[in-house]
Fold this sequence. Notes:
Layout: E1 5-12, E2 17-26, H1 32-40, H2 42-51, E3 57-65, E4 68-75, H3 78-86, H4 91-102, E5 109-118, E6 127-130, H5 135-138, E7 140-143, H6 151-160
Antiparallel strand pairs: 1-6, 1-7, 2-4, 2-5, 3-4
Amino acid sequence: MTKIFNGRYTAKTDEPFVVFLIGMRINQWWRPDKWAPVAGAMTPMLTTLFTHPEKGFLHAEYFWNFSGPLLLQYWRSFEDLEQFARQPSDPHLKAWKKFNQAIGAGGSVGIWHETYTVHADQYESVYGNMPRFGLAAAMEHEQVVSRHETARKRLEVNKAS
């Protein structure tokens, strides 16, 4: 069972990091022959990343919305993320080539990603009565104290650190 941390917590780091959002959109639900392989391609990538933290991958959270899956990832640096994406011995490049051959611009499946580089003093987070989640699962997880009670105050403390 997942441990719940009662009270308010925040994530803390003094290092920059990368937030990477990646997902797919199922445009033609009646074509599982097209979208199921794309959805399944993420499992070998995540297995590799969780098995090899030295690649710079810190943590991921998985979500599903009405149009398809979304993966929220935290990375040590953009360079680490880019290295994983381009390294022939890692599973991403092969999956990307397979997607382009099988789907290309056909329209049955859409894919997207967004990458954000975050400086250590430019983020804020709070988790109430939650397990370690998101950034707090990727970084240091600490209880919020009274001087950090608002988002603005937590951002000010980050900038002062």
